[in-house]
Write a structure and sequence with these properties.
single chain, alpha/beta, Oxidized Rhodanese, domain 1, five-stranded parallel β-sheet, two-stranded antiparallel sheet
Length: 117
């Protein structure tokens, strides 16, 4: 079973933050890292500057590259994939938080736009 198929159970099992809270944490604390778990195509067309791309479909192969001493804010388009990634990372011992509403709720500056998707 893939992580994406677990979307319906992930929301209730992970801590989440609003876009506003995430932005404040990223600006004020260097221990927080923004991970984007969308596809490379989505990321290339519309992203938050400084976000690191770790697509959900490869996360179980690439998570070992992540630093467990950091805290991760996880984003996708609408919050489903990021909730599942947050759940998986927390199960692996990472401190991770889902960004509620994903890119669709991110009101701050981005590179590209939703229209580019």
């Amino acid at each position: 079973m893939s992580l994406a198929s677990e979307e319906n159970i992930c929301f209730d099992k992970v801590p989440s933050v609003s876009a506003e809270e995430a932005k404040k944490l990223l600006e004020k604390n260097k221990d927080y890292v923004l991970l984007d778990v969308r596809t490379k195509m989505e990321y290339d067309k519309w992203r938050i500057e400084g976000a690191k791309l770790y697509p959900l479909d490869t996360l179980m192969k690439t998570y070992k590259e992540l630093d467990k001493s950091k805290k991760y804010l996880i984003i996708c388009l609408s919050g489903g994939r990021s909730a599942c990634a947050t759940y998986a990372l927390r199960q692996l011992g990472f401190e991770a938080f889902n960004i509620r509403g994903g890119m669709l709720e991110w009101p701050y500056e981005t590179i590209g736009s939703f229209d580019d998707l």
